[in-house]
Design goal:
The complex is a heterodimer of chains A (90) and B (78). Chain A is α+β, with helices and mostly antiparallel strands. In chain A, 26% of the residues lie in helices and 28% in strands. In chain B, strand 2 and strand 3 form a beta hairpin. Classes of the chains: A alpha+beta (90), B alpha+beta (78). The interface between A and B is medium-sized, with 16 and 14 residues.
């Protein structure tokens, strides 16, 4: 799998003892402005690593925050957002 | 009952399409005490008519900022 995650965020070779959930969300984004807005609210929340897939309207978040907090945060953008499910780490 | 209707313009950066415009209009339009919102993509601003007893320029700016856009207060006409 080719990862778009910047190298400094790479956790692939580091087995973690604490569980960090990786969650997939649908967010109704249609343009760069939308994905930038999502980026900003997530940055503001802090403690998250994420990937935004604009064409597929998906946001994949790795965080210690719970799903409700993340969904609440995504909904702050005013866009439709829903939880798709857990994504197993590759 | 008198309404303290005021109008402000908030400069909004980061909107690139009509979908951004609509989400801001819908979100801010739902806020308590907001009578009217007009967001312009070309002028990069949001003109809001609101009840000054229920909202302040600061709370309106904060609401747009919380949505993930850069919002700054432009001139307000009392």
């Amino acid at each position: 799998m080719v990862s778009k995650v910047p190298h400094r965020y790479s956790v692939r070779d580091t087995p973690r003892t604490s569980y960090r959930g990786k969650h997939e969300f649908f967010v109704d984004m249609t343009c760069e402005g939308c994905s930038n807005a999502v980026t900003r609210v997530l940055h503001k929340l802090g403690g998250v690593q994420f990937d935004i897939d604009l064409p597929n309207k998906k946001v994949c978040i790795e965080s210690e925050h719970n799903v409700d907090t993340l969904l609440e945060t995504l909904k702050k953008t005013g866009k439709n957002a829903s939880y798709l499910g857990e994504k197993s780490a590759q | 009952l008198t309404m303290e209707a005021k109008s402000i313009a908030v400069v909004v950066e980061g909107m690139t399409c009509n979908s951004c415009v609509q989400t801001i209009e819908q979100h801010v339009g739902k806020m308590n005490g907001v009578h009217n919102v007009k967001v312009s993509l070309e002028e990069k601003n949001a003109v809001i008519i609101y009840d000054s007893k229920l909202q302040t320029p600061g709370t309106l700016q904060e609401a747009i900022h919380d949505m993930g856009f850069d919002a700054t207060l432009a001139d307000s006409n009392p």
